Amino acid sequence: MTEILLIMPASHRRSILTDETAARLAEIGTLREAPTATDHADPRVRQLLSTADVLVTGTGTAKLEEQDLRAAPHAKAIIHAAGSLRPVVGKYAYDLGFAVSSLASANAVPVAEYTLAMILLELKGVNAIAATYRRARSTVDVDALLARRGVYNATVGIVGASRIGRLVIEHLRRFDVDVLLADPSVDRPAADQLGVQLVDLPTLVASADVISLHAPLLPETRHLLDGPLLARIRDGAVLINTARGALVDPDALVTELLTGRFRAVLDVTDPEPPPPTSPLWDLDNVVLTPHVAGSRGMELQRIGQEVVAEVERLVRGEPLRYSVPRHLYAGNA
Ligand SMILES: NC(=O)c1ccc[n+]([C@@H]2O[C@H](COP(=O)([O-])OP(=O)(O)OC[C@H]3O[C@@H](n4cnc5c(N)ncnc54)[C@H](O)[C@@H]3O)[C@@H](O)[C@H]2O)c1
After folding, report:
1. Active-site residue 272, yes or no?
2. What pLDDT sits at residue 9?
């Protein structure tokens, strides 16, 4: 029977696996749990690795180094019950013959939901007006405050037709908005299929009422939004970043936000969290959340369900749904 080895902190395991999904997993194979997710050299872990057929990792699993994977000679796959692979395994896994699977697509669902919620709230001026109302402690001039706000006929700029970016585009089809896309890997026919207008990044930044970042952090996307591009953002627009803080030059961002010219919804920052002295904590034109757009709370159970289904596919010899081929490893990391 297939030996399924869970290597993840007990807290993560409890969040993703309900009694029901854990029972399903135990039906598919022999379920084993590593006593620690952070010390793979522990002799008890080594023993479990020596007979395991599939390794299931999660948030908080320490990186499985090459020697750790070599200690699992029967294991065929690593299924990562979270998004980014880099914290748990390197590219050497492919050289050792492992199939690698990451639940990043399942994790895309809540990020796209968060983004849609923020796009709508920001276009409707809800976050801004709530802050103004609280400070005023009295009636505020709603018509003046909302004169240039609203979802109707707004322009939303999506940076990156990534898993998450595509889901956001899909959600936006239901609304009366124009969607612009900047993504060097997308051509015009593909953009037409997505129902978006393909533009370059400077055009998107200068034209959108909402700019939402969904590109991965790669050497070439570091500070993708630098000072000159941030300066092109329209007055009254909003920049939403649920991707990675370092996609935006952090000093230039603070400089721009201090002027109050545009707003920002930042689920990610660089550094994360911002230093205690950062103006980002206090600015009325900034909504700051502590990297919560991904799967949280009950949403983690979706990850558990999908992990079980992925292990099932592996055991049946079916193609993995969340497989990350070698050439896409960097983008997932
Ligand atoms: N806030 C959270 O909790 C949370 C959770 C999950 C993911 N994320 C982040 O969200 C982002 C998107 O994740 P994903 O899994 O959808 O990404 P992904 O791996 O699907 O992204 C790859 C795609 O990004 C696009 N891309 C690459 N370079 C680009 C560039 N220079 N400009 C524009 N687009 C470019 C391409 O379409 C490429 O196919 C990542 O930065 C990820 O780290 C955040």
Report:
1. yes
2. 97
